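Entry type: protein chain
Record version: 2
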Amino acid sequence: MIPAARAQAAIEILDEVIAAAAGGGAAADTIVQRYFKTRRYAGSGDRRGVRELVYRAIRAWPEAPPSGRAALLGLGDAEVAALFDGSAHGPAPRTQGEGDVRPEGAVPAWLRPRLDPLVASEQASDLLGRAPLDLRVNRLRGTREAALAALGGEPTPLSPLGIRLPEGTAVEPTDAYRSGLVEVQDEGSQLLALACGAAPDTIVIDLCAGAGGKTLALAAEMENRGRLVATDVDRARLSRMAPRLARAGVANVEARLLDPGRERAALAELAQGADVVLVDAPCSGTGTWRRNPELRWRLTDKRLAQLVKTQSYLIDLAAELVRPGGILVYAVCSLLAEEGRGQAEALGRRSSLVPEAPPIPGGRPAGPGLMLTPGHDGTDGFFVARWRAPC
């Protein structure tokens, strides 16, 4: 493909991404893969070049641009603009005024006032830069030293279980991954699991377990001893947990699919019985913009309001499951005050739970909890808070 043809391919993909963001369609990665699946003539260099152009545009625009053409021309890059020359297989020449609209900032304008105050000093390069490739070492299968010897890389600065590999490293074909010694997991997510203080021979509930990333980490901290109940309302996500548990050598997990709105009844036998309850709640995902920059185009005020309502419901549900003296941990991968410190402060006003500092390194105090941010901690953006139920 000539450079102009790559630009045209990027425009076509961006048009699909913009439409998918507006209509809740496929993710950008899926759209890129699907595009090239039907264009076998594109070599690896072409695919890489087009992908880089697509994601450069996605990262540049805090809100969805009018079109793929506008997305590229709005970059203000003379070399990119020169590709709009009308050549065969390339974009049509730019018209008068095209490219005059430029992206501004890293955060959608409507979200800027809603960021947690600790995020205000973060630079665009912090929020949208390349995320590192972090792995969590599975204590059930071995040590961090063994993982480093097998894979190379370096220890992560905060998590005692993390290793960091060069970007683009193929992890899944390695023996270390296939044997369950390591799991791909951001260092921030590793710290959230450690904040629970899960121990052997206890009862732990992972209330929003999804595909089991933090469930695996909790099981390892429990040394496969005790009862770990992993619940979710999403059948497809929960179904992906079983092979991960088998690979990791985890044997103490009870996976439960819950009916939305009927969670209390399904968990009644665990009421006031859990030593630890983790609520890794559904959220805006604003803390993962480094990995998923298009999420900025998908979030709406209505969607955010629904998420905040769900988070409040889940915190209250979790509080009812904690035994006297037990621990509740609430976490969101969000940079927004209303999803993080706002939810934690609201729980403090309506419950007798006593806040405790999460026992993890890194982060900065944010109301009753801690805020981990890409600029300060090098992790995805997370809020985490921890409480103890009175005896």
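Comment: The CA atoms of residues 224 and 251 lie 6 Å apart.
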